[in-house]
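Journal club side-thread
Mid-discussion, someone asked how the predicted structure for our own chain would compare to the paper's figures. Pasting it here so we can look after the session.
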Amino acid sequence: MAEDLYSVLGVSRSADQKEIRRAYREKARKFHPDVNKTPGAEDTFKRISEAHDVLSDPETRAQYDRFGENFRQYAAADAARSSEQPRRSGSTRYTWSGSGAQSVNWEDLFGGGFGGFGRGADHTAELEITVEEAYRGGRRTVQVASPYGGAQEYTIDIPAGAVDGQWLRIAGAGGAGADGQDGDLLVTLRVKDSKRYRLSGADIETDLPISPWEAALGADVSVPTPGGPVTVHVPPGSSTGRRLRLRGQGMPRRGQPGDLYARVKVVVPRTLSKKEKELFEQLRDVSSFDARRGS
């Protein structure tokens, strides 16, 4: 006997549509095959999607409540007796792939892809971009494919200085409307730290590797920034963890741009030449510095 669809979502039979959508979103994010690699997660996700497709539509939910797991047989008989086109309902799933970037897989967890009267439903999605993309802005070409067939390519203009949580609208890329007016696709940008840069509000942080002698004696070194290399002065006696501020080199903002912080990271050579080893040994013998004093 098939598992009760209400139990699959973990809701009661009296649950309203808001509770059903919320339960579906929570479970879908937990068991989506892209994030959950445990055995059986994909089958669980399919069952969760099936439960949502049935219970999120008042008509199919009423049929399920009346006839149980065999409701589809009765629904098919009703459709055969009706001259009207059956209405497609439930959540619409998509795959996005960006040119020149890693594919971004996402699922519309808010339902309402087709059906209804009037304007089509708006869809929502999230798109990850790097700190560099957020800084420079630019265009990302993505392809939206629907399980009902067909695909459409869209170009998204990412503004320079984009912030995490900012959303962009693609008019007409949402659900189909009964009156011909399609809904929109609302894309929320998620700025992801890269290997080189970390983002904190409008400020950017990056690691700055320097040699032991540069740390001890001070030096002017080049720091890579999203806007191009900038020279910064490393004060004498700088240790790992010291932050050097480059004012105005952070994220572009209207009025006041953010700052860039170069975090000093002292790097020791893995191998030493004979001469280098002798010099370090001389330094050891003459220096009274104790790195662990007061730690």
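Post-session note: DSSP finds eight helices and 13 strands in the chain.
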